[in-house]
């Protein structure tokens, strides 16, 4: 496969994690905001079924410094999820196009002749050059997502939980299974939802380099699990991974209370801010919930697709 002059490509190794994260951070900073880093990349590499040897590539300059990265991996039956990043100082030299060549080739290998096969590629919503490249390859934007954040110096007190609700950490046998069941029910109506087996979900959750069950919360109503929040911390930032409430218990302030409790825990650890990722078209009004607890849009990204 063709490589731009002065660059070569290879599969990454686990030792490349910091260098790949540095490119991603530089790319984000070039767009005006640093959101993702080593924790995000490490979690991607820990996903079930992801293979560094076949599903990812790094671009190296003449000094063997990593200046670009791309990956493609199975997302669900019939779909491949991909993304890439190029250091701002090495843009407009064909690296992004070469990475996309490799992504498309790997997608063809993974999807074969499956009916309704889809390639889904994530990109910075303000990256017009990347958008033009994807459009030229036959992809189109299908969904818009936001990273939303809050400065932990601006917290509201969590206050008491909603009446009749018990909120605990994850400690007792069966708690992890309860979190999984709650989140599956809570997200069943979301765009792109597909059932995720418990074993796969748990493997990815525990395999996340920043996994910290002390930050997770589980909500019960008379002993029945009805809400949950997963979270982690990286450097001076807290991350809310998933927060969900089953449909029968929405509208009672449970989601907002979970978020405020999580923010208070982050602040107690001395973290600077908290962040989460959300589908801007979420049908349950998640963006309104996040705004109600003080979160604001920090960065936008789009999902492009080719069927």
Automatic annotation (TrEMBL):
GO molecular function: acyltransferase activity, transferring groups other than amino-acyl groups
Domain N-acetyltransferase: start-end pairs: 7-153, 165-307
Keyword Transferase part of the UniProt annotation: yes
Keyword match Thylakoid: no
Pfam family, one: Acetyltransf_1
Protein name: Putative acetyltransferase, GNAT
Lineage top rank: taxon: Bacteria
Keywords: Acyltransferase, Transferase
Coiled coil (residue ranges): none
